[in-house]
# Entry
Amino acid sequence: MKSYIYLSILLIGLGMSSCKKKEEMKVSNNFTVTIENISQGKKYFNSGKTGLIKPGESASFSFNAGKGHYLQFGTMYVQSNDLFIAPGEEGIPLYTNGTPLTGDITGMLQLWDAGTEVNEEPGKGPNQPLRQAGPNTGMDENGTVHPVMDGFTYPAVNEVVQVMVTHDGGTGFTVTIKNISAASAIPSPLAPGTWVIHSKMQKPMFANGEKASPGLEGLAEDGNITKMDNNLSSNSGLVIPFAPGAYATGAQNDIFTVGAKASAALEALAEDGMAAGFTQVFNTPEGASSPGPLTPGGKYSFTFTAEEGDNLSFALMFVQSNDWFAGVDNIALYNGSSPMEGDITAKVTLYDAGTEVDEYAGAGNNQPLRQSGPNTGMDENGKVAIENSVSDNVPSVSNMLKVTLKHD
# Structure
């Protein structure tokens, strides 16, 4: 009996020794994750165009905008050589002290001279669109943009056009341009025009006292908006920063759980870009001396040690949202005993923390760049989920981020 017990203890000891040896033989590596913001920086938030508006007709366009956004638009006064109707060079603010613009804004418009073609008597000039042999046929003026003052008599702007702005609720607006020139001294079509939503101090279409761009010349002389529209549209879109984030390694995702209510730490990260509630954070862009957001062209990197069986999770806020974040959920760092490496962008997903009601991306007044303070939006009382209803101006994750994984 004693021999049996001794043998059993010996076997158990050998087994424990074997397990311990196996554990000691687990592979471990140092890994580095690099998150690069590959989105394109844009000058303006949105832009579009309008068509020909004949006397008695109207046209409308709609858009989203937030506090700090301005509206600029222009259309040719066709019974002229190079005159156009537009607000001042810096456009019209769409919010005043947080109150959205609404109502008749005709009084904010002027008749401008592009300074590109010598003026002829309105409604009679042979080089004006309704009578000229072809586009760009008048005498070059080589001047600058200015309010019209050429000695000719023109109908008042409010006899030619009426412009109304409707606030559609939330961040939505609709602008309606009505041609009311039929009763004026010189009835005139309004040529195709362009519009743009931009920021304060920008002059996206023209500047008073400066030479007209080729785009403005086309719009003001011939109602040809191709160049202006191309310039505005190529420079319009959502600017996409990401906020500092957090990561976790190990057997489970300690940052977030899809289908579960967000933790207080995740709520702060997803709503306000505050990652301090987590132990392991990344917050300083490469080349920067202090923590800050990840703007287009910037990179975050973080390094950690992991072993077989460990996974990676991370999350960082999509700043132009109420509570969206980009992240990976428990992806394997090893294939067997081989460490993973390479481009893992395809594994990155856009999530909704479910903590704050969503607004239009880049326009919501409860989003970090426009809100009065942290945690100011309406509570959603939801759960963490993959975001499948993004605003129409949000690119795919693969067009915003590039994420790579390397090991030693």
